[in-house]
Amino acid sequence: MTELSHIRNFSIIAHIDHGKSTLADRFIQLCGGLTDREMAEQVLDSMDLERERGITIKAQSVTLRYKARDGEEYKLNLIDTPGHVDFSYEVSRSLFACEGALLVVDAGQGVEAQSVANCYTAIDQGLEVVPVLNKMDLPQAEPDRVSQEIEDVIGIEATEAVRCSAKNGEGVEDVLEELIRLVPPPQGDTEGPLQALIIDSWFDNYLGVVSLVRIRQGTLKQGDKILIKSTGRPWTAEKVGIFTPKPTETGELGTGEVGFIIAGIKDIHGAPVGDTITYQKTPDTEMVPGFKNVQPQVYAGLFPVSSEDYEAFRDALDKLTLNDASLFFEPENSDALGFGFRCGFLGMLHMEIVQERLEREYGIDLITTAPTVIYEVVTTDGELQEVSNPSYLPETASVEEMREPIVEASILVPQEYIGNVIALCEERRGVQTNMTFLSTQVQLTYELPMAEVVLDFFDRVKSASRGFASLDYHFKRFQASNLVKLDVLINGERVDALALIVHRDQAEYRGRAVIEKMKELIPRQMFDIAIQAAIGNHVIARSTVKALRKNVTAKCYGGDVSRKKKLLQKQKEGKKRMKSLGKVDVPQEAFLAVLRVDDK
Ligand SMILES: Nc1nc2c(ncn2[C@@H]2O[C@H](COP(=O)(O)OP(=O)(O)OP(=O)(O)O)[C@@H](O)[C@H]2O)c(=O)[nH]1
Predict the structure, then answer these.
(1) Which residue ranges are tagged as binding site for GTP?
(2) Half-sphere exposure of 496 toward its Cβ, with a 13 Å CA cutoff?
(3) Are 357 and 48 in contact (CB under 8 A)?
(4) In the chain, N or C: fewer CB atoms in 10 Å?
(5) Structural domain containing residue 565
(6) Whose CA is nearest to atom 7 of ligand 1?
(7) Residue 85 in contact with ligand 1 by CB distance below 6 A
């Protein structure tokens, strides 16, 4: 077992694309964890989808053995963190296992809002933050400006920050040396009863549940009789080891160490993240003060296009939640779409990933309804309800007050784009609470309705700043607001799956825009289709999709046969994603029309 003084536990905080994975790979290479061939692929991003999208989703860890310049060998545990704002809670839980964090900043770009937020979390949790300037090989690198910015924004000393290029390897050893010098070793009673914090749990088809743990106190050995504190259930530690990054059994994990345990648990809810493992013989050992469990922020109805897929869909969701404790689902029944599930996600990216996996890995075609946040409704008899589905909103007459979730958003933007970003925030009903000028960037703080942020705000902020602004946000509170339910009627029938909750001031505009969008998206059929938007019984907008008069392919008459075939093929594919509402075929896009509505 390694002495505490020779262990360092750290995470890397970095904005997407600033080079975290490349740097981690360099560390692994330098410490001889993998052969060159195994190195060919970036190893920390393990899921296919992650690799395709080039982002890191699941927290992973790797134990490195590093022979330092002082001649001593150190055991460095790197706990990986995801880079996207949807998954920022995973960052916080990874940080729980560490004494330090490397803040990796692209020396050609500068600090980004999300890294700032993560650094604050790290500092709050008592971690030592070590700044690293990456991509020094690039001609546009401006290390002095970026160091200054780190000092201004985060308030940590950065003039001496290590400079490196993860790409060509220069300075990478210096990063590890700085890490050993600045990050304190773990502490803990090596003789005390076992206290192991579960940082992450995932389901492996062959092994069952694998948990990544950080040993706070005592030693965990293979064969130990253990107890999961919150469930009170006893298990036996069947396998204990570390990731190098390949899973490698070591038979034991000592105080301060990070590694895996496999105990024959069949379901990740049996080893909840944030829980504590101890010995069966010491059941009174205290829980390690845990981190907050996250709640889904965005909800949407998911319905199989073909009702025969319902059972397969439920099985697929069951399987996905084995590995994704933040995915929530419960059955939902829609008059329009039949049986499906209301699912809760951390954000839009999370939703897209889940949708994509259901379709790609499980082959289920889905219709997704417009995502919504959770609202609080106080009824006239004083009851407080949480509403995550607009069609379950109580009758207007029995609603005393509606409250919407408000987030605090922090935006870092280069000065030249500040006007655009402020205009966007105002448009989204934002209230500015702070503005600080830094060397080249401005730090803006806004309170914004979550509903205005979760859908496309990130993309809009990006496009308002030619990609340079960055955003971080977190839930602040519920606030009373003038909200109404906007219904959509097709041929006079209210379609529950198309209902929305919107601010009254925007209701008319939204209603009109959604109707216009739907008119474009619903294909012409053999009869006129009336589309209306209404608040209560009051119709605020209407439009008609005129009946079809001629064959769509008629215009190819006598023309190119392959083009005609293509068109027919396209129509056929289009069909797959249609849902018949009464006699009207409505394509998937129409259900998401609300997302496509351009702002005023
Ligand atoms: N020129 C140069 N490019 C680098 C350097 N480090 C990383 N890159 C490149 O920057 C891009 C992003 O690097 P990644 O390591 O994937 O970034 P990341 O921060 O891990 O991204 P996420 O996994 O999405 O969080 C890749 O194209 C890398 O090849 C560097 O030191 N110099």
Answers:
(1) 17-22, 134-137
(2) 14
(3) no
(4) C
(5) 485-595
(6) 19
(7) no
Share of the chain above pLDDT 70, in %: 86
Whether 59 shows a pLDDT value over 50: the answer reads: no
Q: Which amino acid is at 498?
A: L
Ligand 1 pocket, mutate which of 18, 20, 22, 49 (most atoms under 8 A from CB)? 22
Residue that is last in its domain, among 441, 458, 481 = 481
CATH number of 555's domain: 3.30.70.2570
Q: What is the pLDDT of residue 57?
A: 37
Question: How high is the mean pLDDT of the chain?
Answer: 84
Identify whether residues 436 and 476 lie together within a single domain.
Answer: yes
- The residues near 43 (Cβ < 8 Å, ≥ 6 apart) are 25, 28, 34, 62, 245
SS (H, E, C) 448-482: EEHHHHHCCHHHHHHHHCCCCCEEEEEEEEEEECC
Q: Which letter does DSSP use for residue 19 in this model?
A: S
Same domain flag for 85 and 154: yes
Report the nearest atom of ligand 1 relative to the CA of 84.
Answer: 25
Q: Mark whether 174 and 319 lie in a shared domain.
A: no
525 pLDDT tier (thresholds 50, 70, 90): confident
Same domain (yes/no): 312, 453: no
Q: What is the pTM of this model?
A: 0.70
Residues 485, 490, 492, 494: what is their CA dihedral angle, to the nearest 10 degrees?
A: -40
Over residues 369-400, the pLDDT tens digits come to 888 999 999 999 999 999 999 988 888 888 99
Together in a domain, 341 and 382: no
Cβ–ligand 1 contact at 201 (below 6 Å)? no
What is the DSSP secondary structure assignment for residue 218, as one 8-state letter? S
Cα 101 to ligand 1 centroid, rounded to whole Å: 18
CATH number for position 423: 3.30.70.240
Question: Does residue 190 sit within a domain?
Answer: no
Residues 567-582 pLDDT 10s: 556 555 544 566 677 6
Mean pLDDT of 63-68: 91
> Is the pLDDT confidence value at 478 over 90?
yes
Q: How far is the CA of 100 from the centre of ligand 1 (A)?
A: 21
The reply to whether 157 and 53 lie within a common domain is: yes
- Which residue, of 314, 349, 369, is where some domain finishes? 369
My answer on whether 448 and 303 are in the same domain is: no
The rounded Å distance from CA 416 to ligand 1 centre is: 26
